[in-house]
Amino acid sequence: MKVLARLGFAAGIAAASVGAFAGTASAEPGHEGGNRVVFVQTDNPTGNQVDAYDRNPGGSLSIAGSYDTGGNGGQLVGSVVDHTASQGSLTYDADHGLLYAVNAASNTVSVFSVYGDDLVRRQVVGSGGTFPVSVAVYDDLVYVLNALDGGSIQGYVVTDRGYLQPIESWHRALGLDPTETPQFTSTPGQVLFSPDGSQLLVTTKNNGNAIDVFHVAPSGHPSTTPVVNVEAGAVPFAAAFVDNRHFLVTEAGPNDVAGFTLHADGMVTPDVSVATTQSATCWITPTGDGLFYASNAGSPSLSTLQTGGHHELTLLGQTTTDPGTVDASVSPDGRYLYVQTGGTGTVDEFRIHFDGTLSSIGSVLVPGAVGGEGIVAL
């Protein structure tokens, strides 16, 4: 269902406020989608920024510009290298040429139009909760995950002029224990859509050890309550889909990557689990051809995994990174991997070989990005 139909539905059930605008309000959003560029979020508590880096021949990065989000980054209590302790805090919307960045301490989300390596800030909108950490996109729908005060999700429609319109009735509390400590392991880690957009998944980490699944109607309206799939002791952190119904989850408890099948009723069933043999396995990045890279913040390293038929999952090897391996992104051509290392606030650059092995190209320092998370390669 396209945006006008969704907005027509929403008009009868909610009065939505668009938020604060910045930049040129009359400009239409860009659809170039960037070209050989990597965007990195600093999550700086004194002023969040998104830095743009041109991807040079050979995969190395060169700074192209820095853009204020209009909000502040935040730090969960207990975190050192991963201040939002989440995946998806910087998310690209290819259909609309938009980039979404969370401002955790400001309880807002910034919306940028993408023109190559140039960003134009269009909007700063409330996240519908406290401490936003992750953004999911499907078609004209956007959902934001808020981490504190028990956690919540908030739904939006992308208007035909490239703004997020929050829909009040698309807010759902997760009902997690707000007193659970430490914060960085006891707050939800990611929100993501199933590939067909019919379900919305939330990982709760140590606060319930569950994968919550909401049904999403064609209008965008979420089910009143989720199906709660408990994985005792697993600490499910981040997820990535293998195909329409199978997905992988990083489990920070046992330091595993586990495969699951997602069913139409919201239940998930386990398929396979592989130990990374590393420490603090928390993030996972797909290449699009069956290879996945898991980030191990405590090692620090990247684990290379390969999927196959009949739910097979194989650990291929490890690659050392700079301290504090966190969020990562693969270039669209599948040739380069860029990973944030929150211990020093750098982005490590790697070439991906045909067998999935990695070779280092170098690294770039991102000013003010120690503990920062959120990276998108276009």
Properties at a glance:
378 residues; mainly beta; five-stranded antiparallel beta sheet; four-stranded antiparallel beta sheet; 1 helix; 29 strands; 49% strand
Report on the architecture of this protein.
By secondary structure, this protein is mostly beta strands. It has one domain (3-377): YVTN repeat-like/Quinoprotein amine dehydrogenase (Methylamine Dehydrogenase, Chain H). The chain contains one helix and 29 strands. It has one helix at residues 3-11, and strands at 20-21, 37-41, 49-55, 61-68, 90-93, 98-103, 108-115, 118-126, 132-138, 141-146, 152-158, 164-173, 190-193, 199-203, 210-215, 227-230, 236-241, 246-251, 256-262, 268-275, 281-286, 291-296, 301-308, 312-320, 325-330, 336-341, 346-352, 358-365, 375-377. A five-stranded antiparallel sheet has the order 1-8-7-6-5, with no helix packed on it. It has a four-stranded antiparallel sheet with strand order 4-3-2-29, with no helix packed on it. Strands 9-10-11-12 form a four-stranded antiparallel sheet. The chain is globular, with a radius of gyration of 19 Å. The two termini are 27 Å apart.
